[in-house]
Amino acid sequence: MTKPIKKIILFLILIIALPILFFLFKEASNLNETEKMIESIYQKQLDAVLFSVNQYSEDLARNWMNRIEAYDNGRNSLFISDENIFKEMLSENPSIKYIFASDTSFSFNAIFRTSGETLNDPYLKKLLVKQNKLVKRLFTYQSANFNKIEPLPAPDETALQYLISISKSKLVYGIAIDKAEFVNKELSAKFISISQSEFSFAVFDTTTSKQILTIDYSEGQKFQRTRNLWMIPDYKMGIALQGKTIDQLVSERNKSNVILLVVLAIIMIAAAWFGFKSIKKEIELAQIKNDFVSNVSHELRTPLALINMFAETLSLGRVKTEEKKVEYYGIIQQETERLSKIVNKILNFAKIEAGKWKYNFAEIELNQIVAKVFEVYKFHLTSNGFEFALNVEEREMKILADAEAISEAVINLLDNALKYSGYNKKVVIKTGTEGKKAFVEVEDYGVGISQEDQKRIFEKFFRVSTKEVHNAKGTGLGLTLVKHIVDANHGEISLKSELGKGSCFRLTFPLLES
Length: 514
Ligand code: ADP
Fold this sequence. Notes:
Layout: H1 3-72, H2 83-92, E1 96-102, E2 108-113, H3 122-130, H4 132-143, E3 150-152, E4 160-166, E5 172-178, H5 179-195, E6 199-205, E7 211-215, E8 225-228, E9 235-241, H6 246-315, H7 322-354, E10 362-365, H8 366-383, E11 387-391, E12 398-401, H9 403-419, E13 426-434, E14 437-444, H10 451-454, H11 466-469, H12 478-488, E15 492-498, E16 502-510
Parallel strand pairs: 11-13
Antiparallel strand pairs: 1-2, 1-5, 3-4, 4-5, 6-7, 6-9, 8-9, 10-12, 13-14, 14-16, 15-16
Helix pairs in contact: 1-5, 1-6, 6-7, 7-12, 8-9, 9-12
The site of adenosine-5'-diphosphate has 21 residues, from helix 9 and helix 12.
């Protein structure tokens, strides 16, 4: 890898990959925290739902208690004569079983029952005496103008829950509600209205584990949140999300977020990879162009130097024998030819690039074209010490093509065979048919081309890195021209080559029907 490319990789890692990795790492670690936060928000929401039920039941109780206190109206007692008033309240609210009032020594001055009976209730008195402290606390609240309602804890399993409060006139008063009835009659509507098919509810007795009320609740379902009922401390209510649990929802979200992050990471890495690839290509192209300029300069300089040297020697009249003069003229001519070849190649390439190369298609015989090229080229091969052979197909091979362009392509292949043969100087030219196609092959036994380079040799300016394979100079345009000519003449080019063993280029063209 060249230095600038290494620099780009380093640059990309620093500028793109590191921030991406940092971002992804941070996102991944944030994910956990976000999920925890979401879970806690969910939990709080469930808490809020249960809180609203508690609030509702307290409001209900407060409402009832306020009604009772309104009858007390500062008299500090409820009278049996008030029975009719309370009868109405009791029949309206069947979960209330008793309404009671007492003085501070807990001697009841009135107890109303649903049936209308009035009687002293020693059980309640015992309860109040036991909860003396609680009552005292309520007195303190009342003196601070805070009318608090407290449930009286019962020592045994009882169906009733006593709620007490202190009136402004210091009357201890309260109600006894049927716990199960209260939940079923007063709270069920509230639960249903909140449920909305999203939540499941259940109210159960903590002492007996008996289920008192269930809304959309399926047996065995796990509660996400449970809370005691403020007004009935023995009862607990539980809430669960219908369908999926919060854990499931959170883990599903987590999964989809992780997938999203992975996809994002892949996209970002792919983008960085494509960025790197295109920059690498640009740099390679710039390098190749640089090489091209230096190669072409060298290619031009050598023949020019030779021409200059021999022309000078001749013009100074230093060459004495006619024989030598002929030889020097020959060299000058040969080098001029070489120069014009290079210039032609570059001009032809420029024409191709500009889309200005014009072809004159005509019916031609491939054997003839190849034989002509061979006749002209034979001299080169011989003078360069090459062993060579031309194996021509006996059949006529008519194709529709531009004769000049095809010759140019074959010459380019021969030029390369010559340049890249190293010490193994042997070239075979062969023509033949294959099905409905005619071909011409140029085979050498020289340096060969690696599999890796075979993919790129037709690219413009591309040259196999010279140090390892060969020292021949060139423009990197020869095969680009050949490929272009073959394509334009509806042909195909194929290559068989092995490093160190040689190469065989084959040009194939469709035969004309005879
Ligand atoms: P040039 O010969 O001017 O470098 P070409 O486009 O003709 O450019 O060839 C591209 C590259 O392909 C050459 O640089 C050379 O490395 C390789 N190549 C072409 N022909 C042969 C061959 N016959 N044997 C080995 N390598 C070859």
